[in-house]
Amino acid sequence: MDYFHIIRTIVIAFIISLLLGPIIIPMLRKLKIGQSIREEGPQSHMSKSGTPTMGGIIIFLALLITVATSGIMSNDLILLILATFGFGFIGFIDDYIKIVKKRNLGLKAYQKFVAQVVLAIILALYQSNTSIVETKVIIPFLNNQYLDLGILYIPFIVFVVVGTVNSVNLTDGLDGLASGVSIIVFSFFSLVAINWGMNSIAIFSSSLIGACLGFLIHNAHPAKVFMGDTGSLALGGAISAIAILMNLSLLLPIVGGIFFIETLSVIIQVLSFKLTGKRVFLMSPLHHHFEQKGWKETKIVGMFWFITAILCIIGVISLN
Questions:
Q1: CA 228/CA 305 separation, integer angstroms
Q2: What percent of the residues of the chain are helix, what percent strand, and what percent coil, each to the nearest 5?
Q3: Of 17, 114, 115, 158, which residue is the least packed, with the fewest Cβ within 10 Å?
Q4: Environment class of 293 (CB within 10 Å of its CB; exposed 0-12, middle 13-18, buried 19+)
């Protein structure tokens, strides 16, 4: 597979996603599938209340159509699609409950956690039983040396998957933030996959680049649609599944650094408040902290995109 094939895949997914927007967004609006804004969130976000959500459907449909017409199919590709759909379905149910109940909270935390753990275990079992390196993962910066996790592989993968999925979900708080960061991360995976001859993963990653690019046209500030948990959990599932199949789980905190920094900011905020009664950040996740400091939404998003690009370059260097 050459780079032309990858570029063609990106363009096809982009066009499909771009064209699906004007079809699906009015449908979401007609069905009154609008975003509820957290009362404890930034006051500037109140104007976004009612903006159509569950736009992740656009990304998934563009992905599905592009992959189905790519002429490439394998067990890995099927698993990647199922993982994306599985986590996206959890998000869909969560969004649906929020909309029907007209409240900001959907599924209970333990319900989402159990469902995510089940899917993560399936991913771990598949990879450990089909990969030629079994329970080994690549150690960054050590010239493709492997670490054999043995019996710790499954709990490690569960931790990675659940952590990644929810980190992407937390990052989806500003127009174009999660979709833009995801595009850069998928670009990293696509580049590495094509150089490693992992054609299925290259096609899958490239399809998501195009699908997210098309969605970003509708999601950029001021957003006409939000991806909702339907989209953010699906993207998190896709990112973690790709990393697992490429044995790059240890690289996720680097290339997906923004996702993990966002989560870390929430953890620090909660622990600090419970232990000392004081908050470290003006508001968490981290992007809200910068908003409270007076930064424009577009500036924060641009900065996070730039940081992700730098981190992905570091990721490439770590594998050489």
A1: 20
A2: 70, 5, 25
A3: 114
A4: exposed
